[in-house]
């Protein structure tokens, strides 16, 4: 019998990281009938909370926090806050932490990701990232003061920060090194239509603009120009928070993520990994995926819990259709699937209008879908991607035809 098999009442699961993925792991284990002990360790002092509201309601002061509505005590989950995992000794089944070693039978790594910062800005006042509740609470009064905000990076976080800052009445400039917003995620012909959203919202978007230095109160660009900045919000991506695993034997991928297998097991027996810190091989998309989105931090833990309770013979393989949403400039933007540059792009609706979608097809089969203000397209498209369905191109390109009615 492999070591990574079924539950037994005396076995103890330790979860390192009490964000969405860690909390969901603990909750899903109880839902699946895990009767052994569950210890949930989180580095932050706050009761576990959800991150998407941080760049939306929390940043605007419309919500104080976003704590998960979970009664850990009644689920018999031993939640330990302010405890950071610092190392792993698999041979002894010990997790080293700032509160001393913690013994485990099964360990689930759920330490999420850390925001990438701009070199040389650590000690500059007025430079912010947005990853934690503390980050949002620090930034909130700056926005409320309605002054000059420079967002560095026109990705998902940059767009949401710009949206909130404009709503708060700030003067907003977004500085983007590439030629368009969301350059890593979407092709130029799609992203080009999103660039206009910044201007419509009264934010200035500077593309092909690199930050060379940040001083208190100003951002200097590579063309020598100086942007006044009461706050500089850096949104240039996040890296898996896996540095503490160095020397543990847990294999990491080149991007720093835990290289999990198709059931989210790591290279070390009885150690699993979920959420933003882990990548997994997707048979569906034919490549290893590192997904930094909320839905992945919900679905992965369910797969791990099922595998732990049922054992790997009966436990499911993890091969989701990735999904995320973003709320920016008054629009609800959703994406499902995974597309490649070579996939065929099909428009549904006028991208200059209020709502439209884009489909990506490979050999006629739907692989990815971006929906702006068309949640029904997203819901239907996500199912069609799951099913690997081929679409009739003419019908799929007609926004008046429900996507599910475009199936061949
Ligand atoms: C501001 C913001 C807005 C977002 N909005 C959206 C959105 O609109 N839509 C969407 O799909 N996704 C969104 N996301 C992404 C989504 O929130 C993440 O994918 C999700 O939070 C990942 O969950 P996680 O538990 O893997 O990681 P995290 O949420 O990062 O949680 C990891 C936890 O582990 C703790 N930790 C780290 N290291 C250690 C350690 N060594 N020991 C113990 N604890 C440790 C951290 O303090 C943290 O609390 C957003 C993210 C951010 C930051």
Automatic annotation (TrEMBL):
Q: Where is the FAD/NAD(P)-binding domain?
A: 12-297
Q: Which UniProt keywords apply?
A: FAD, Flavoprotein, Oxidoreductase
**Which Pfam families does the entry link to?**
Pyr_redox_2, Reductase_C
Span of domain Reductase C-terminal: 323-406
Query: Which InterPro entries does this entry report, sorted A to Z?
Result: FAD-oxidoreductase/Apoptosis, FAD/NAD-bd_sf, FAD/NAD-binding_dom, FAD/NAD-linked_Rdtase_dimer_sf, Reductase_C
Kindly list the cofactors needed: FAD
- Annotated coiled-coil positions are none
One cellular component term from this protein's GO annotations in UniProt: cytoplasm
Q: Which Gene3D superfamilies match?
A: 3.30.390.30, FAD/NAD(P)-binding domain
Q: Name one GO molecular function term.
A: oxidoreductase activity, acting on NAD(P)H
What is the protein named?
Oxidoreductase
């Amino acid at each position: 019998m492999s070591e990574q098999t079924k539950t037994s009442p005396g076995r103890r699961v330790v979860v390192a990281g009490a964000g969405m993925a860690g909390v969901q792991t603990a909750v899903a284990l109880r839902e699946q009938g895990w009767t052994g002990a569950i210890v949930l360790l989180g580095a932050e002092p706050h009761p576990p909370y959800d991150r998407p509201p941080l760049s939306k309601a929390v940043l605007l002061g419309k919500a104080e926090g976003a704590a998960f509505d979970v009664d850990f005590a009644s689920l018999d989950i031993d939640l330990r806050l302010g405890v950071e995992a610092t190392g792993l000794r698999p041979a002894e089944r010990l997790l080293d932490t700032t509160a001393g070693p913690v013994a485990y039978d099964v360990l689930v790594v759920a330490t999420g990701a850390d925001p990438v910062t701009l070199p040389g800005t650590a000690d500059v006042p007025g430079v912010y990232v947005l990853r934690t509740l503390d980050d949002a609470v620090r930034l909130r009064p700056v926005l409320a003061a309605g002054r000059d905000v420079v967002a560095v990076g026109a990705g998902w976080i940059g767009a949401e920060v710009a949206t909130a800052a404009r709503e708060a009445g700030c003067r907003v400039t977004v500085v983007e090194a590439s030629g368009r917003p969301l350059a890593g995620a979407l092709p130029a012909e799609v992203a080009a239509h999103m660039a206009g959203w910044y201007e419509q919202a009264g934010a200035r978007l500077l593309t092909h603009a690199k930050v060379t230095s940040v001083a208190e109160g100003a951002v200097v660009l590579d063309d020598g120009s100086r942007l006044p900045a009461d706050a500089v919000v850096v949104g240039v991506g996040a890296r898996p928070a896996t540095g503490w695993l160095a020397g543990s034997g847990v294999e990491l991928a080149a991007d720093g993520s835990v290289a999990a297998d198709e059931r989210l097991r790591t290279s070390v027996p009885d150690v699993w990994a979920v959420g933003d810190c882990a990548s997994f091989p997707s048979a569906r998309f034919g490549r290893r995926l590192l997904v930094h989105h909320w839905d992945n931090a919900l679905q992965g833990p369910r797969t791990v819990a099922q595998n732990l309770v049922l054992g790997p013979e009966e436990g499911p393989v993890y091969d989701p259709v990735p999904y995320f949403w973003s709320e920016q400039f008054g629009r609800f933007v959703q994406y499902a699937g995974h597309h490649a540059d070579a996939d065929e792009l099909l428009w549904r609706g006028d991208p200059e209008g209020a709502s439209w979608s884009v489909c990506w097809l490979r050999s006629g089969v739907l692989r990815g879908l971006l929906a702006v203000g068309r949640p029904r397209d997203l819901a239907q498209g996500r199912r069609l991607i799951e099913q690997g369905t081929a679409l009739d191109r003419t019908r799929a390109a007609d926004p008046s035809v429900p996507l599910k009615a475009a199936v061949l």
